[in-house]
Amino acid sequence: MQRIGVLALGLLLLAAPRAPAQQATGTTLWRVAATTLPVPAALTLGPAAVMWNPAQTQDSARLQLALEAIQTPAAVDATGLIAAFRIPAGSIGQLGLVYGRVGLSDITQTVDSPDPTGTSVPVYTFALGGTWSRLIGPTSVGATLAFHETRLDLARADRWTLDVGASQPLLGDRLRVAAATHFFSSLKTNDPAQDIYAGIEGRIWRGPVSTNRVVVRGRYGIAFGHGFGAGVEVAKTVALDLMLSREGGYSDGAHWRPVAGLWLLIGKYRVTLARDAGVNDLGSSYRVGVDMRFR
Fold it and tell me: Which listed site, 3, 9, 44, 105, has its alpha carbon 20 to 30 Å from 286?
């Protein structure tokens, strides 16, 4: 179970040096939140997507705001929040701030019996950072400098991370490749507190359906899990994303987990709804978000 896995990982790592243990547990909580992404993390787009890839394409809006809420099933009982805003900065590109928090709730202390004492145990991680992106020719590049705090009961660890990302269209808009670091803070290749994302997206078909222009895209991404899927966009006002993610485990092998997402453009607002199907009968995780663009 994911929640038990998060706690077990934290308790096991507490036997190691405390700061690295806390950092890895914080990243694990963010991986739980990422189960609601219906698009490979490196290919995500939007103001709040800087949490996964800072290389966001330029937008003509004078102000972009985003807010996303994440809820996992009761067996995990993790909640998350991502908030971001971005503004154009002339030839510099775009600048912004991003804040995110993921935590577990309803965890209480016990002493010498299974009965809880009523004292809650804080388990959470949050990140606050500044982000920058710019188009260099057709290539979008970006970076995010963020401060992180992770808390496991009385143990706490802080760290700074610097993430970079890039998104490159090829053959016009027929193909796009993207890659990004996630919570990069050391040069170690086996550091469990950081990830590297990569993805490729190709346009499968484009044409009119009734009075609307429809674009169908196929995607493949790799990170701590593998995922492939497809997206359908209609007249740039509604889109449906489907992804099948393959995730490995320590004891019972790999699992395939489907994720679906829908976004609607209503005036200056883009509303996003996403849900995964869960594994091992844990139930579904949900994500609800809204982007606002003021021109």
Answer: 9
Whether 245 contacts 257, CB under 8 Å? yes
Which carries the bigger pLDDT value, residue 104 or residue 130? 130
Calpha distance 46→64 (Å, rounded): 9
| Largest separation between any pair of C-alpha atoms in the chain | 68
- Of the candidates 27, 3, 15, the residue with the CA atom closest to the CA atom of residue 148: 27
Of 134, 155, 152, 125, which is closest to residue 55 (Cα–Cα)? Answer: 134
Number of domains making up the chain: 1
Which residue's structure tokens are 């485990």? 249
CB 257 within 8 A of CB 38: no
Q: What are phi and psi of 48, to 5 degrees?
A: -75, -15
For position 57, which CATH number holds?
2.40.160
Q: What is the pLDDT of residues 271-293, one digit of tens each?
A: 999 998 877 667 789 999 999 99
* 3-state secondary structure at position 35: helix
Which residue shows structure tokens 């099948």? Answer: 244
- Local structure of residue 9 (DSSP, 8 states): H
CB 72 within 8 A of CB 96: no
Tally Cβ neighbours within 10 Å of residue 199: 24
Asked if 56 and 94 count as a contact pair (C-beta separation under 8 A), the reply is yes
Model confidence at 197, pLDDT cuts 50, 70, 90, reads: very high
DSSP 179-237: EEEES---S-TT-TT-EEEEEEEEEEEEEEETTEEEEEEEEEEESSSEEEEEEEEETTT
All residues at 6 or more sequence positions from 8 whose CB lies less than 8 Å from its CB, including other chains: none
Rounded to 5°, the CA angle 92-143-78 comes to 135
Confidence of residue 142 (pLDDT cuts 50, 70, 90): very high
- CB count within 10 Å of CB 144 equals 28
What does pTM read for this prediction?
Answer: 0.85
Amino acid at 207: G
